[in-house]
Amino acid sequence: MSTTMEPSVLDDVAVEVLNALYWDLALPRDRVHVRCEKGWVTLTGEVERAYQRSLAEADVRRVRGVVGVVNAITVAARATIAGESTKAGLCAGAA
């Protein structure tokens, strides 16, 4: 079995990866960047939540022709909103 791919197949992989990320509405479209090389996909950028980082990788892994994924997406440190800790405390106390 040959692991080499035709250039058109490699282009198709890149297009399919971009398409998969574009249609995932949970991902910010302008904050995730993609580089494809020989079936290996490198994801970079910054997202607000950890699940978005994981979701981007999962989306890419499902694309046919992807050999592997390097997930270098970072999760932005959020500033604590004053009311956020109060809401969390109320929810914890209700349980």
Per the CATH scheme, the topology name is Histidine-containing Protein, Chain: A
Total helices: the number is 3
What is the β-strand count? 4
Quaternary state of this entry equals single chain
Q: Helix and strand string, N-terminal first?
A: HEEHEEH
Shape: globular
Alpha carbon gap, first and last residue:
56 Å
Low-confidence stretches: 1-6
Tally of domains = 1
Gyration radius from CA atoms, angstroms: 18 Å
Structural class: alpha/beta
Helix content: 40-55%
CATH architecture assignment:
2-Layer Sandwich
Percentage of residues in strands = 15-25%
What's the CATH class label? Alpha Beta
Characterization of the model:
The protein has 95 residues and is of the alpha/beta class. The protein has a single domain, classed as 2-Layer Sandwich (Histidine-containing Protein, Chain: A), CATH 3.30.1340.30. Helix content is 43%, strand content 21%. The chain contains three helices and four strands. The protein has helices spanning 7-22, 50-61, 82-94; strands at residues 32-37, 40-47, 68-71, 74-75. Strands 1, 2, 3 and 4 form a four-stranded mixed β-sheet that branches. Helix 2 (50-61) links the parallel strand 2 (40-47) and strand 3. The relative contact order is 0.17.
Secondary-structure topology with pairs:
Elements: H1 7-22, E1 32-37, E2 40-47, H2 50-61, E3 68-71, E4 74-75, H3 82-94
